[in-house]
């Protein structure tokens, strides 16, 4: 299949391009590089030995996206493009709503116009809000605590309504848990701008000496050791999940959790990183971060049953691969 990957130069998008090309699909990337670099496209080509067609465009701009659809015979689209920093979304809500929601509308509109009926969307476990664990797809969604999370809830609803009006349309809403790690080549990985918000990039930058020490946000949660628990999933497992979702699309809307089903605490992740890479990660205990939930992880049974998806890579591999990328290639 020939697949449009919006946000394909970004962290999860670039790994998914690798997985798609490996499975013999053709890839067309549309990315405005607001949080990524064009050289990532070259790295994807280097890893796979295949060609990637790249358009530096903003997918909220209908005319620009229309010209991409006009040039290709696309079979499907995977929509990664979006802004993703939770804290920033509270300071710049309009930017987040505009970019994330309008990009979804414009892309869906182009799919309708050009009869591209396969659509995979990057959603997030954040849509569950502070729900019972494990999070399962059938749960009633609870409010998220930030505009970023709301853009995912709204985009999911828009795609569901669009599908109802266009029954030939097949949509997969993928709710990611916490993607970490990098491609085993060390050529592509996560490189956030500025000081990282997320745990693993913070750990790797402390290990490298770029940042002095990690602050562990809260050690009084009702969890195994008092620190926050998350379901960390290797980004290549996540990438392979997209290929499965795309290849198994059926008419209608399907929702899938993509995670491992296992919770890991902040302290457990620090220890795993130290053990995997034989390096110290200095840390201090700090106040809880506002908006954080104590613990969540995925019920993964639906993705396993319907897509044959199981995350294969261990926490130690996630830590090794994240460190290889940080250490050697930046
Ligand atoms: P990322 O920032 O690395 O990638 C997003 C890409 O989209 C970037 O390359 C950016 O330049 C591009 N982009 C943003 N707005 C655009 C626009 N209007 N037009 C064209 N390109 C645009 O982020 P990521 O971690 O790879 O996340 C990909 C998707 O997955 C996002 O939608 C994000 O919300 C979602 N998601 C991420 C996580 C996570 O923890 N990383 C978890 C759940 C969901
Ligand atoms: C993980 C754990 C922190 C940094 C966020 C978004 C979510 C999704 C993934 C997009 C928590 C603790 C962190 C630090 C710490 N993104 N932590 N010190 O908050 O689960 O999810 O990214 O959809 O929507 O909210 O991930 O990596 O920020 O935090 O102690 O410097 O690490 O408190 O327990 P989170 P995270």
Automatic annotation (TrEMBL):
Domain of life of the native organism: Bacteria
Single annotated GO MF: UDP-glucose 4-epimerase activity
Keywords from the UniProt entry: Carbohydrate metabolism, Galactose metabolism, Isomerase, NAD
Cofactor: NAD(+)
Domain spans labelled NAD-dependent epimerase/dehydratase: 3-259
Statement: the UniProt record of this protein carries the keyword Isomerase: yes
Subunit architecture: Homodimer.
Pathway(s) where this gene product acts: Carbohydrate metabolism; galactose metabolism
Catalyzed reaction equations: UDP-alpha-D-glucose = UDP-alpha-D-galactose
InterPro entries linked: Epimerase_deHydtase (IPR001509), NAD(P)-bd_dom_sf (IPR036291), UDP_G4E (IPR005886)
GO BP term, example: galactose metabolic process
Protein name: UDP-glucose 4-epimerase
Enzyme Commission numbers on file: 5.1.3.2
Coiled coil stretches, renumbered: none
GO cellular component: cytosol
Family that this chain belongs to: Belongs to the NAD(P)-dependent epimerase/dehydratase family.
Species this chain originates from: Aminipila butyrica
């Amino acid at each position: 299949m020939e697949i449009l990957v919006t946000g394909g130069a970004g962290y999860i998008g670039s790994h998914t391009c690798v997985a798609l090309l490996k499975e013999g699909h053709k890839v067309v990337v549309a990315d405005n590089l607001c949080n990524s670099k064009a050289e990532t496209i070259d790295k994807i080509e280097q890893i796979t030995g295949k060609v990637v067609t790249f358009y530096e465009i903003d997918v909220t701009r209908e005319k620009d996206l229309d010209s991409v659809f006009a040039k290709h015979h696309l079979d499907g689209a995977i929509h990664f493009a979006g802004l993703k920093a939770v804290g920033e979304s509270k300071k710049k809500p309009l930017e987040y709503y505009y970019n994330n929601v309008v990009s979804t509308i414009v892309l869906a509109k182009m799919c309708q116009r050009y009869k591209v009926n396969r659509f995979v969307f990057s959603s997030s476990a954040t849509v569950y809000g502070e729900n019972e664990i494990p999070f399962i797809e059938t749960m009633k969604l609870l409010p998220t605590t930030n505009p970023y999370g709301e853009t995912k809830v709204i985009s999911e609803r828009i795609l569901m309504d669009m599908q109802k009006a266009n029954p030939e349309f097949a949509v997969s809403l993928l709710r990611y848990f916490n993607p970490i790690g990098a491609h085993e080549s060390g050529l592509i990985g996560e490189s956030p701008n500025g000081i990282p918000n997320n745990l693993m990039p913070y750990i790797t930058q402390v290990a490298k000496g770029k940042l002095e020490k990690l602050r562990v946000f809260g050690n009084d949660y009702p969890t195994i050791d008092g620190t926050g628990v998350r379901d960390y999933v290797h980004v290549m497992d996540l990438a392979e999940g997209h290929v499965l979702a795309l290849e198994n699309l059926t008419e209608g809307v399907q929702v899938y959790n993509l995670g491992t089903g296992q919770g890991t605490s902040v302290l457990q992740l620090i220890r795993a990183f130290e053990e995997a890479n034989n390096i110290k990660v200095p840390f201090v205990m700090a106040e809880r971060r506002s908006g954080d939930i104590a613990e969540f992880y995925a019920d993964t049974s639906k993705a396993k049953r319907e897509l044959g998806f199981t995350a294969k890579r261990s926490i130690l591999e996630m830590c090794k691969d994240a460190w290889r990328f940080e250490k050697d290639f930046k």
